[in-house]
Amino acid sequence: MNQTRTLLMFALLAVCYMLWQAWEQDYGPHPLNETATASSSTAAGGNATPGAAPAIASGSADGAATAQLVTVSTDVLRLTIDTRGGSVVRSELLKYPVAPRTKKDPDPAPIRLLDDGSNDYFAAQSGLVSADGAAPDHRAVFQSAQTSYTLADGQDALNVDLTWTDPSGVKVVKRYTLHRGSYVIDLDQQIDNGSSKTWDGNAYRQLQRVDRPAPVYSNFLQRISDQSRFGFFGAAWYSPEQKFNKLAFDKFEKEPLQNQATGGWVAMMQQYFLGAWIPPAKEADSFSSTVVNEPGSAAHYVIRSVGPQISVAAGQQASSTAQLYLGPKLPDQLQTIAPGLELTIDYGMLKIFAEPLHWVLAQLDKLTGNWGVSIILLVLLINIVTFKFTNAQFESAAKMRKLKPRMDALKERYGDDRQKTQQAMMELYKKEKVNPAAGCLPLVITIPIFYGLYYVLRDSVELRQAPFFGWIHDLSAADPFFVLPVLYTVVMLVQQWMMPTTAGMDPAQQKMMKFMPLMFAVIFLFFPSGLVLYYVVNGLCRLLQQWWVTRRSEAAPAKAA
C-alpha cells in the first residue's frame, strides 16, 4: 500500500466534505424565518414551557418606562446591561481581539460575544414570572444607582445591583457579581415580599440570538478556505442523564426542546466562544426552546431554563441564583465550572483523537510557549513512537526497489495477463519475505492524526491567532504566502522519486501518482498552516528515515561480499 496515495484519498474526502458543507449552508434547507407558523410566534419573550411555569411574555405596565445602559468592566470582560429586564446585551472579551495585533493596528477591538445589533443579536436574559402576582420579567424596567462600574485595582469582585419595585410592595434586586480574571458571572435575584399575601412564582434564564449572517466572499476558493463556517453554531444543553446535546437552529421548529434536568445547563455555541446559563447543581429545572418571529426582523432563537416554584410569605425574602458564562472555550476552565461544559469544544466524532492531541500540544506549549514549536515536537514524539513500524515500511520499500528488475522481467514474461503477473509477484514477495502492505499500520496512525489535528486547529481557542515565526501569524489560518504547501510539495516529489514504482500499476495510476504532489499543493493551500506545518516536518522526518534505510539497504550486499 502506498502511503502517499492513501493519504491523498482521505485528504480528497476531507475537501469533498467541506465542499458539501459549503453547499449545504448556501443551498440546503435553512431555519424558518419571520414567516414561520404562528404556533412558534410570541411576544418577544416566547411561549411558556407547558406545565413548568406561568407564561413568560413581555412586560406591560413598565413598557413605557425609560431604560438605560449600564457599563461594567473587569480585567477580562466589558459588559453592557440594559436596565430594561436587567439583560446583558453586550459582552466584549478584552483578551481576545477581533484581528491579530499589527504595527498598523496595535490595539484591535475585542471580540463581542453578546451583541444588541440586529444582524448579530445575542442577549443573556433573566427574570421572574408569577401567575397571580407582580413579577419583573426580561422586559420590566429596573433602576441602577450608576451607569458605569469598574473593577478597581486590588478588588477581587464587583457587584452590580438593579432594583425593581411594584406598588403592591414586592421588591426585586437583581445582582450581578463579576470576579477578577473570570468569565463566570453570578446572578442573584432576591425577592422581598412586602405585600400582604404570599408571592408564588418562578425564576428563568434564557439565551436569545439570531442565526449568524451569511458571510460574503470574493470567490469560491476564499469560501472553502474559511474554516470557521464549518464549526457548529447554535444551541446546546446538558443533563446528567442525557449528557451533551446540540440543537441546531433548523431543528428548533422540528425538534423543540422539552426536558427536565437537575445539574444541567443551557448554552449558545459558536466557534471558539460560548454563552451558557448554569443553574445551581441541585436545582430541578425545565429546559425548553422556542422561536420568536416578529414581522420585519430575523427569527430569534431562544433556549431557556426555568427553575422550580418559589414561595415567599408576606414580609419574607427568598432568592434564586445562577451563573452566566461568557467567554472562550478553554477546556481546563470549563470542566471546573460545570459538568459537561467542556464538551462544548466540539470535535465531533473524532474527539477520541482530537482531545489527546490537544492535551499533548497544551503540555508542550507550557514548555515552549509557542504552539508551532509544540506541533514540531508532537511530530517528533509520534515519529519516535512509530519508528519501528515506519522502519518496516521503508525496509519493505527498499527491498521492492531491489526486486524491481525481476518484477519487470515477470511483467514482460506474462505480457497482458495481469492475473498470472500478480500471482508471480506474490510468489516473489513470499520468497524474498517482502510485505507490500507494510505501510498500512503507519497509515492507521497518520489518518486519525490528520483529521484530529485539523479539528484541534479549527476549534481550539488557544490556537486562534497563535503565531509561529516569520510570516505565520495565525496557525489556525491558511499560510498567507503558501510557503508551507510548496515545501510539502517538494518533500512529496523527493519521496516519490525515492519510492519504487509498484509493478503492475496501470498507466492511469502512474499518471495519477505523478500529479499527486500538485493535488496536495492545492489541497493544503486552504488548510490551517499549523496542520501543513505538521505534515512538512513529518514529511522531512520520513524522508530522512527513508534515505537512511535505502542507503543501508544498498550498502548491505557490498558488506556481505
TrEMBL record:
It is found in: Cell inner membrane; Cell membrane. Pfam families: 60KD_IMP, YidC_periplas. The chain crosses the membrane at residues 371-391, 434-457, 477-494, 515-537. Residues 371-551 form the Membrane insertase YidC/Oxa/ALB C-terminal domain. Residues 35-54 have a biased composition (Low complexity). Keywords: Cell membrane, Chaperone, Membrane, Protein transport, Transmembrane, Transmembrane helix, Transport. Gene3D superfamilies: 2.70.98.90. It comes from the Bacteria. Residues 34-54 are annotated as: Disordered. It is a multi-pass membrane protein. Residues 70-360 form the Membrane insertase YidC N-terminal domain. InterPro entries: Membr_insert_YidC, Membr_insert_YidC_N, YidC/ALB3/OXA1/COX18, YidC/Oxa/ALB_C, YidC_ALB_C, YidC_periplasmic_sf. Belongs to the OXA1/ALB3/YidC family. Type 1 subfamily. Interacts with the Sec translocase complex via SecD. Specifically interacts with transmembrane segments of nascent integral membrane proteins during membrane integration. Required for the insertion and/or proper folding and/or complex formation of integral membrane proteins into the membrane. Involved in integration of membrane proteins that insert both dependently and independently of the Sec translocase complex, as well as at least some lipoproteins. Aids folding of multispanning membrane proteins. This is Membrane protein insertase YidC. It comes from Dyella acidiphila. The gene is yidC.
